[in-house]
Specification:
Blueprint lengths: L26 E7 L5 H4 L9 E4 L7 H7 L3 E5 L3 H10 L6 E3 L5 H8 L7 E4 L4 H10 L3 H7 E6 L3 H4 L18 E6 L14 E7 L5 E6 L3 H9 L9 E4 L3 H11 L4 E4 L4 H7 L6 E2 L10 E4 L16 E5 L11 H9 L9 E6 L12 H28 L6 H7 L3 E3 L6 E3 L1 H15 L4 H10 L3 E6 L13 H17 L9 H11 L1 H17 L4 H27 L5 E2 L1 H15 L15 H4 L4 E8 L14 E8 L6
Parallel strand pairs: 1-8, 2-7, 2-8, 3-5, 3-6, 4-5, 6-7, 9-15, 9-18, 10-13, 10-14, 11-12, 11-13, 14-15
Antiparallel strand pairs: 16-17, 19-21, 20-21
Amino acid sequence: MPFTHLGISTFAATESNPSVKQEMQTQVIKINLKITDRFEVAFSDKLIPSNSYLDKSKTGLGMTYAEFHAERHSIIVIPYTSIIDLKVKEYKYKRPLKIVDEVKPKVIGEYLNSDVEYKKLVTTPEGFKKIIDAAIAIEKLDWLYKEFFCLLDEAHCYAVEAFRKYILMPFDYFWKFANKALGTATYFPYSDPRFNQLTHYKITYDDPFGKITIVDHEDPKTILNHFLTHPEKFPGNVHIFYNSVTEIEKVIRAAGIKDVNVYCRDEERNHRMLGDSAIHFKQEPRVEDYKKFNFYSARYYDGWDLFDDVKTTIVLVTDVKVKHSLVGIPYNGFQAIGRLRKVSPHKLYHITNNFSKEDKDVRSFDHISRNWYYQANNHTQYYNDFKFKALEDKMEEKQETWNFVSPFCKFTSVTKEAYVHPMKVDQKICEEYSHEGYSNVGTIERQWREMNYETEVTRQENLKPLVIKGVPKSTVNKQVIELIEEYAIHPEKYSHTQADITIGKLREGFKDLLIAYKLFKKDGLEQLGYDDKAIKKALIEHSNANQENELKLRAKVAYKVNIPYTTDGIASILKKIYADLKIKAHNGKIRKAKASQLEELNIYLIKKTQRNDVGGAIDPKTGKIKRIPVWILHEFPNGN
């Protein structure tokens, strides 16, 4: 990970003394594994160590599987109901209890009193209090704290998902369990001092997890559209993680694709945002349902196993202009990219843009953390001073004032004095640090490398649009050639954009110009001033010149020497040859045939003479047979 625990002073989250500061040193135990190793290689007893914070560094290690099969009672906290559904279905033979909205504490109490040998309570963070309420109701709360192993899976979610009002609920009770642990592949260094009482296990790997191609473009939807409209570029299914149902609908509609699934929360709002694309909605990823393109919202970034084959392509899409899509690379970004199980993907892509910050302006995790604690500590003090002054002055405290500090504070039960809550501050730190990771393409690449991925970056650009309005046609022609040359010289800059379509349209719309470019090169076009008429004339002359030898051969066969031809007779034969060979005049039409052209083209010498009219017509002036002009053809002295 790109950071370690900071050891900064924070307020301990206790009501009894909210201003006490604590600092402790976390014990770190490093374990090195091979890429193919499973959980039991790291922990031979197949048990998650008690009172630990397990940094797996890699998804799919088998930690959750281990706890479902551990011979002990467990509370397993998983952030998403969709993932809970999948896990409970997968391990139903262990007789787990799924705690979702409709499950009441009474049902939980009955399960706690049941004959299930190793009880497995599986809940979201928000459902945790139901377990506590159930244990209180059956008078077994102490037993619960003592006998149940409490696992907070996907532990990064408590920092990442601040938008969930009750996401921090488990921490009201977590520290009271005799045996507990947190686990994640995307470690976050929580600043609550009590985390330092846990043993930190850090699993490392010698080999990289794979290679990710970072496709950098100012508008990620442009790249995504290219992907969706070029399915032939992908040998297998494509799984696309893009946390915006609205944007997913836009790209599906723009691409006009039908071979697609959309996996998101099954709720009316999402169906409404999908519009006509709602027909592609799927709630549960299943191998038999996969389409060529499969979109996933953040609901499916964590905690589940994607099974597909070695032809699979995984794509993460983020956009600084679409706030919800901007997931932290060390957290949900890494989680999404790592969902495929049993095989390595054919390709990994991260399609993104960035904030274009200079490196000197990029803030570190340490800087962001210290700044947020400075803000939280001082604003909390301001709030408390104001609160007691308002009390002395017999003034009411307004809700807006409370709202100002509540995002990073909790309040004592009696006096309602505010104190800094480290978990809430961590949420602010995480959000800002996640966004800072998109400062520039360099910070994006560095974060992927720190997450043990090899990287390659391809900077994609749009071809410049033609400026047509208010400019002469010659200027438009020059622009077209510049675009054609740019595309030919730097194809890597446009390989994932719609440039191929743009170039295709230019080739179709400017055929003569591009033929001339191929024949005369750019220098030749510049000499012609990029003028349409001059270009057309030059093309005709070039075409005619190429036909000259064929013209001579045809004429040698069609005409005989020393035989008289009338003007019309010569022209008629030559006209047919021009038409057959498509020899044109400067106006683009078939050249008009004249007898004199046989000599001009160095085919025959022609001499004009006269002969008697073959029909015997009488000249009225002389009374003799009419004499008419004819042409006699002779070979050139040099043999042409």
